[in-house]
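Incident log, support desk, overnight shift.

02:14 A customer reports that sequence design results differ from what the structure should imply. Their input is reproduced verbatim below. On-call engineer (initials T.W.) acknowledged and began investigating.
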């Protein structure tokens, strides 16, 4: 009846044994259980959590061997054992990481990556899983700040500090920005595009620019959002063109698309040029000036 048993180290020939005292929290929990079997399985998680609560938190080969032994005694399957171990290690990593950040130790470290790497090694936590957690934490912070409707200088500084501390990669920052601040900006862009050629005005353009400024959206991310929203509008026009019965109507719909692009889309994109595009335009202007001077 291993499912009904409570594993405990042998007390034979040990007058100072206190293992039963260590089991008191488990026994107290079991006293209120209708079925001790699932509770005993939960005890495995309690064992892992209590082991990882020691400072500094570590999960080395010896700790893993102890966990494997206990999982075997509790008749846990390898899959269930791994899931519980992974969850406990993940929780310990997050807790320890929070302590490193709030204490300022990570701020003071010359190499943030080295500290994070050492923490992963100490807890036997996969570096890729840690990186994914860092992005998750960064996104949660971004969502909380953006939910206010706008970002202050301090908000932006706090977010950038977190990016540096957690070594969040630039491409992940751009993706998170699009998924958080980008939603608010996309709504403003969609509203401006919906005005259409006849109703679109400088005020619509100003509202879109203000929406981007409010959430401090990077130009490249903002450009991709405008492009995506415009693409949706173009696809709608193409669909109308294809459904038109006459070639004249189809041609008019295509002409409307060109006008829409020039009158509505282009103004929204003009201030969102990439650094490469700006540089290319400056070079072209300088070359044109040089030609005129030579002439």
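02:41 Re-run completed on a clean worker. Output:
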């Amino acid at each position: 009846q291993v499912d009904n048993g409570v594993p405990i180290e042998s007390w034979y020939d040990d007058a100072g044994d206190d293992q039963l005292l260590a089991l008191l929290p488990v026994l107290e929990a079991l006293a209120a259980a209708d079925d001790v079997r699932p509770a005993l399985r939960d005890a495995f998680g309690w064992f892992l959590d209590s082991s990882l609560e020691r400072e500094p938190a570590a999960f080395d080969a010896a700790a893993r061997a102890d966990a494997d032994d206990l999982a075997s005694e509790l008749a846990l399957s390898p899959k269930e054992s791994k899931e519980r171990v992974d969850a406990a290690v993940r929780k310990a990593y997050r807790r320890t990481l929070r302590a490193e950040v709030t204490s300022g130790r990570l701020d003071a470290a010359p190499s943030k990556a080295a500290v994070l790497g050492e923490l992963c090694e100490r807890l036997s936590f996969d570096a890729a899983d840690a990186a994914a957690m860092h992005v998750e934490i960064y996104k949660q912070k971004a969502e909380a700040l953006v939910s206010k409707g706008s970002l202050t200088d301090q908000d932006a500084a706090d977010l950038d500090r977190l990016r540096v501390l957690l070594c969040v990669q630039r491409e992940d920052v751009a993706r998170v920005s699009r998924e958080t601040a980008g939603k608010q900006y996309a709504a403003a862009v969609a509203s401006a595009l919906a005005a259409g050629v006849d109703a679109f005005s400088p005020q619509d353009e100003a509202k879109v620019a203000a929406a981007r400024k409010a959430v401090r959206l990077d130009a490249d991310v903002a450009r991709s959002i405008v492009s995506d929203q415009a693409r949706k509008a173009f696809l709608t026009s193409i669909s109308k063109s294809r459904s038109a019965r006459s070639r004249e109507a189809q041609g008019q719909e295509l002409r409307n698309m060109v006008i829409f692009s020039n009158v509505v889309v282009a103004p929204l994109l003009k201030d969102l040029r990439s650094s490469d595009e700006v540089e290319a335009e400056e070079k072209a202007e300088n070359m044109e000036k040089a030609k005129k001077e030579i002439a």
